[in-house]
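Fold this sequence, please.
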Amino acid sequence: MWSEILTKFAKYPAQEKVAKVLLDHGFQVDENGSVISGTIKIPHMQIAKEAKVDWRAVDQTTQTILKDELLQRFFSNLKSFVFLRDVAPFLGLGVIIITPQDASCVGIIEEVSQAIAEYGVRIRQAVSDDPYFIDDPKLTIICDTKVSSDLIDSLLKLQSVKSVTVF
């Protein structure tokens, strides 16, 4: 899907940069061409600054999105959400970041969550990067407690796991 979306911006590198910023932040494009997060309007100048492009490229990108049915459906339905990874330590929660051997394989989340459950640890949140959108996808697990070294060792023995980072 992402390659199909990128194809629509292939002739316009600045618009491609804007589209990536919109995706990275889960920003939507509404029917008026405004960039929004929920009901909050994000100034095009801010998007341009983040994408390192001229503000007119943001206007052009939103117009391109509105003129194309696939792009319009995609970008009007993106959502941002609360991701606990960076605040988890302040809340006394554990964070496990899994780098998979091959993120496109089936069953990674199941295998990892089973291993975590065997240690009696509850998962509060699981966020998996989409390997079609992200170059180096990770699986981030937020647990209700700090993670033991035994659990880490168990995760490292899983076939689907390349590496584990804990904080």
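The helical segments are 2-8, 13-25, 44-51, 55-67, 69-76, 108-118, 149-156. The domain at 88-166 is CATH 3.30.70.260 (Alpha-Beta Plaits).
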